[in-house]
Amino acid sequence: MANSDINAKILDTINILEGLETLMDQAPNEAIAKILQKAWLRVSETFPEDFQAATKEDAGAEGLRCYLRVKAFFENPSENPIAATELERYYRNHLPLDGDTADFLFPE
Q: What is the dihedral of CA 77, 78, 83, 87, to 10 degrees?
């Protein structure tokens, strides 16, 4: 499978995750929010292992998109330029998890 095919499938999956994030924000109660969170986690597990490992600290839809842009930048910087702020954000998101993020990614 070509790299562009993989990226297209990853982008489609990111769009699904973003929809689930929106639904979680609009959930009428905690029980529904937890169901949506479990769905979000199951969908995110479909990413390749290297992608999961690289985005574990910033696994939200925007963080995943940022990772794709940074990855493309490192593969070919002249054809895939990024802003310095994106690179800074990418590295900042590799700091240790805070409590809220850990609770989301590792619910009880």
A: 10
Beta-carbon contacts of residue 54 (< 8 Å; ≥ 6 apart): 67, 71
pLDDT, tens digit (0-9, with 9 covering 90-100), for 3-40? 667 778 889 999 999 999 999 999 999 999 999 999 99
| pLDDT at residue 107 in the model | 61
Q: Specify whether the CB–CB gap between 92 and 84 falls below 8 A.
A: no
| Number of Cα atoms under 13 Å in the Cβ half of residue 68 | 20
Give the pTM. Answer: 0.69
What 3-state class would DSSP assign to 95? Answer: coil
Q: 């769905």: which residue's tokens?
A: 39
